[in-house]
Amino acid sequence: MSREKPTIREVILVEGKYDQNTLSQVVNATILTTDGFQIFKDRQRVAFLRRLAETRGLILLTDSDGAGFLIRNFLKGAIPKERIKQAYIPDRYGKERRKRKAGKEGKLGVEGMTPEILLQALLRAGATIQGAGEKVKAGCIRKQDLYALGLSGRQDSADRRRVLMQYLELPEHMSANALLDALNLLMNLKTLQDYCEKLFPAKTGCLNSRAE
């Protein structure tokens, strides 16, 4: 049996970085975090997740304790239900290795689950598995495209990025590299060029053609 990690099309949302690290060893996918309860007061991040759900689909995988369900229920009310898939881990009691003591409810979180349990949770949720060795198609937007569109490397690039991020409802503190990652999740190069022509009609230069 091949041990190659399956590739999942949807964006997967977990609670923290340790969950993210554990899951990244099980599947190839875009895995984001809520940073625990921080998601409750981060309207920009919620808007970003909503956009990702619309374009790629979103799988929510939280811990099985009360805190995990608070986060899950919050996001269920913030994102259209038809664009979000719910993945659940079973109740397993114990303590993760890195922790000095078990959590309040004594349950293992996502980081404490075996790869088999995590994969089954995603499959039961209806995760879209890509073909063997196939990668999720990105938007093919590169750093040189940001420069050509005036979004990096220019005197007014920071201002232009801020205008674009506000228009797209992206978090305002994204760096140019973080913006590049987000754009590739949300759109292709032609769409980005159209947005820039709309927002900066007198300033957007022509992109040089690229050999694919």
Can you characterise this structure?
It contains eight helices and four strands. By secondary structure, it is of the alpha/beta class. The C terminus is likely disordered. A four-stranded parallel beta sheet has the order 2-1-3-4.
Write the layout of secondary structure elements.
Layout (H helix, E strand, L loop, with lengths): L10 E4 L2 H8 L6 E3 L9 H13 L2 E4 L4 H13 L5 E4 L27 H10 L18 H6 L8 H12 L7 H11 L2 H11 L13
Parallel strand pairs: 1-2, 1-3, 3-4
- Integer average pLDDT: 88
How far apart, in Å, are the first and last alpha carbons?
34 Å
How much β-strand is present in the residues? 5-15%
Number of strands: 4
- Helicity, as a percent range: 25-40%
- Widest β-sheet, arrangement of strands: 2-1-3-4
**Uncertain runs with pLDDT below 50, 5 residues or more?**
206-212
**Oligomeric state of the chains?**
single chain
C-alpha Rg (nearest Å):
19 Å
What's the order of the H and E elements? EHEHEHEHHHHH
What attributes characterize this protein structure?
single chain, 212 residues, alpha/beta, 8 helices, 4 strands, 7% strand, disordered C terminus
Q: In summary, what is this structure?
A:
This protein is 40% helix and 7% strand.
